[in-house]
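Quick illustration, no need to memorize.
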Amino acid sequence: MSPQVFDVGDRKQLFIDDRWFDESQGMSLRVNPPVKHDRVLLPETPWEEMRIGSYSTIIEDEGVYRMWYDANAGDTPKGRPHRRCVCYAESGDGINWRRKNVNLYQWEGITENNIVMTGQGAIMKDPVGPAEHRYKALVGTHENDVWPESKGAVTGYWEGDRFVARMELYLCTSPDGIRWRKLGAVSDYFHDTHNQLVYDRSLRRHVAYVRTHARGRTVGRLEVADPLTLPWIPLGLEREEKAAHFQVAAQTDAADPVDTDLYTPCVHKYPWADDAYFSFTTPYRHYPVGDTTDTTLLGPDTRGRFRNDGPVEVQLGVSRDGVRFSRPDRRPYVPLGLDGAWDGGQLYMCVGMLRKGPEIWMYYAGTSHTHGAYDPKKATREGGIGRLVQRLDGFISADADYRGASFVTPALRFSGAHLRLNVDCSALGEVWVEMRDENGHPIPGYSLDECIGVDRNHVDAAVRWRERTDLRELAGRPIRMHFRLSACKLYAFQFTSNRETNAAEQ
């Protein structure tokens, strides 16, 4: 038995790894995909002629649901450096969204629009930032005539026949999420696509999760003492010197298909439980490049016609500290739709979680074509943004099949008087809990035989014993829990002062 004692207090604990399995028999951890619902936003405007959604953010902000979404107008023969914009929408219920015109900039002669800046990047509301910098974004943008703040932006350049992959990533801030200023470059490493800044309350520091290149595309991590002090790493370094400043938070490995990398981070510190970080990262499997010049000779396999092409899906990464993520299941968390469907070619998770009672709502973007299989100069109005519904705490479960299973936790110390479970036993399953002392001996009154089994489906079920009304006498001392389960999925446990079901979770 492990000698470590976990102080769980009254904080909810999730089964995202084997932390709570000091001894186990027949248990397995299972990633549970969310349920896809209808698209909530489709491309409609001229600045969305190519597609929308790939790199977007949705948050609840003082009772309003706010969305900053990626709009792509496509290119033109003369070039269109303003082809990618960050646009704004709002909703009162998370289902019905309306574009909100802010009318700040002129886009190809159109002054009534919902464009808040050009480029792409994730938005965050900083809980410790000064009012004038309350909203922050890590943005990559081309210099263009639409957004005045883009002046001087660097996105790579040519030296003769050689392209220099120097892309500056900019810290942009806003007092309201609408009017944005570009403060300066945080790094000039090639941080393409969806980069994000978060404030980690556990560390009391800001953390950036960005595109790096350790094993193809990887997720890099950088702790930032003061995000307003720029740059975050020295500019003008050689590629290897830049890379040394970033930790590798997630990357592919030998268990992944050859020529696969991780496209975006999409990291969340789960706010409704203890020590749980999720990365909804996007594995990208590259097709080998074939003869792209003669499309009459493709034969039956058309893959390889386009460069930088292949399918993209969403997988779930987990971490206890936000430093290093593992992917416990390589099956998709959000799978591709059927071939030809709006989300049948590539998927990207939007940053943000909405708590809706016993559910977590998130959003994802997709297209019918794979990553590179499109003409950038052709208006296709592809994809959109869809809604996903996950059970509260339901990302990963500790599963027992119909034959039964059991596990014993390491020693833990709790506060409160009642044990509550988030568990789905459906009709035929059941779970019993025994309280043991730190040496593994059953505590009289709290044995398996004295436990009243929990069945059916609950997000907040109380565990009871026949002769004991609460656990107050055990609070503050090291104990172990022995779970016996049959045909059920256990998502979380928590010690609380509440005896009755928490109505907010029902």
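The chain has two domains: 5-32+397-505, 35-393.
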